[in-house]
Design a protein that fits this description.
Layout lengths: L1 H5 L4 H8 L4 H13 L2 H54 L4
Length: 95
């Protein structure tokens, strides 16, 4: 990428050559280079991927939350059962 830029290539072509960036970002950077509004395009790219990240975190949380509640219920249930078993076992001791 560094060599491409040093030889006068465009940023979008250099990023596309790496294969690490999504096509949407590469195309938007290309438009920003052509129009001279690179800052606007980079801001829009950041907004798009910020919304995508927030959406992913929201869906992960929505999926993971019931599992946490189930796990906590099992832990609390196990503690209650162990306490009750201890209480009942004291009654079985012969004094």
């Amino acid at each position: 990428m560094y060599r491409d830029l040093k030889q006068g290539g465009s940023l979008s072509q250099a990023l596309a050559a790496t294969g690490l960036f999504p096509n949407l970002a590469i195309h938007m950077i290309g438009v920003g280079e052509e129009t001279g509004a690179m800052d606007t395009m980079l801001g829009k790219i950041a907004d798009i991927y910020d919304r995508e990240l927030k959406s992913g975190v929201k869906s992960f949380t929505a999926m993971f939350e019931p599992l946490i509640i189930l796990f906590m219920g099992l832990v609390i249930g196990a503690m209650v059962v162990s306490m009750l078993m201890a209480i009942f076992s004291v009654n079985e001791l012969g004094f």
